[in-house]
Design a protein that fits this description.
204 residues, alpha/beta, Nucleotidyltransferase, domain 5, globular
């Protein structure tokens, strides 16, 4: 019972799922004004690069690099999807999750990606509990801090950190960053999200 009601900050990092690039890019065609084969090929390749960027933030076309977990007031760790499944089992009693999560845009991105990635890879998760965390309205086991913004006027985590804590996230170029740099970025996001959560906790 020692894990009951613990609160964890969660953040994921994603990349395009390589075997889905051609599916996503299947509709790409050069404008009819392009006649030169080399130019047509270059145009299509550039569009494929643009699509890969979009795929990383698409809940269907992306795959998980890592799932960052940080107990509020505790240490941070990075998990694979399989390891996250085991983590959730430790925090399940009588078929129900007994911990809470803090995210920034977790309802629309993190949890939908986790759910869909687990289904793709046939990994067992407490899908009903995770689906409830994506609910439109306030849910008791998930604090999505993006909801600190007024609807339709959403700000990034970085902007919120600058406004309320006077700090900025370390810039990362996801096109050129190594996997190690992306994982470091995930750990930084966990720490910063926790800071924002602690600041606003009395109002949540």
């Amino acid at each position: 019972m020692e894990n009951k009601f613990k609160t964890y900050v969660l953040d994921i990092e994603t990349k395009p799922q390589a075997d889905l690039v051609n599916i996503c890019a299947s509709g790409i065609k050069a404008p009819k004004t392009y006649k030169d084969e080399a130019k047509i090929s270059a145009y299509i390749e550039q569009k494929k690069l643009d699509i890969r960027k979009k795929m990383s933030v698409d809940t269907d076309y992306s795959e998980i690099i890592c799932i960052g977990i940080k107990e509020v007031g505790g240490e941070a760790a990075l998990y694979s999807l399989v390891e996250f499944s085991e983590f959730l089992k430790v925090h399940t009693i009588d078929g129900y999750l007994t911990c809470k999560f803090v995210t920034y845009n977790g309802k629309k991105f993190d949890f939908p990606v986790i759910i869909k990635s687990a289904i793709k890879n046939k990994i067992e998760l407490p899908f009903k509990d995770l689906k409830e965390m994506t609910g439109k309205y306030k849910v008791s086991n998930h604090y999505d801090l993006i909801e600190l913004n007024e609807y339709g006027n959403f700000k990034s985590l970085d902007i919120m950190l600058q406004i309320y804590l006077g700090i900025s996230k370390k810039p990362v170029d996801f096109d050129t960053a190594s996997e190690a740099e992306i994982k470091e970025h995930c750990l930084e996001d966990l720490i910063n999200t926790e800071k924002l959560f602690n600041l606003f906790k009395p109002s949540l």
